[in-house]
Design brief:
This protein has 1 helix and 11 strands; from the N terminus they run αβββββββββββ. With 136 residues, it is an alpha/beta fold. Strands 1, 3, 5, 6, 8, 9 and 11 form a 7-stranded parallel beta sheet that branches. A 4-stranded parallel beta sheet has the order 2-4-7-10, with no helix packed on it.
């Protein structure tokens, strides 16, 4: 009987730890970025200017949030690909911690496409330009 209680305790404790870590996931990003951003790493916290380097690709999946900690650029360099394709029911959110757009502070510096690849695709993005100093 004691053994069964111990096993139940361990199972519940393990589930609690996994649930807590899944609900508190976040990923800090800066510098060169590529690959796939999905909801398991969301929100993605931009702590400095980010670049998708030449010839690289970044796919941002539906349901992700990208939160700028400061007035940083999100650059898509030459021949790089950004695919941020949300859906009608599960958009991708771009926002900033400081949403007070006064003076030279607040917001983020927007998406910057520098001769990026023609296959860049953006759809169902929310708040992309609301808090951007440079409109898309």
């Amino acid at each position: 009987m004691i053994k069964n209680k111990w096993v139940c305790f361990l199972v519940l404790f393990t589930l609690l730890v996994f649930t807590w870590s899944a609900t508190n996931a976040q990923t800090e990003v800066s510098g060169d970025i590529s690959g796939v951003w999905d909801t398991t790493g969301s929100p993605y916290i931009v702590t400095a200017e980010v670049h998708i380097p030449t010839g690289s690709m970044l796919a941002i999946m539906p349901g992700c949030s990208i939160i700028f900690q400061g007035h940083y650029k999100f650059c898509i360099d030459s021949n790089a690909v950004l695919r941020a394709i949300g859906s009608e029911t599960d958009s991708i959110v771009f926002t900033a911690v400081d949403t007070n757009l006064t003076g030279s502070s607040g917001g983020h510096h927007g998406l910057r496409f520098f001769y990026s690849a023609n296959s860049c695709t953006l759809s169902y993005l929310f708040n992309l330009s609301t808090f951007a100093r440079v409109k898309i």
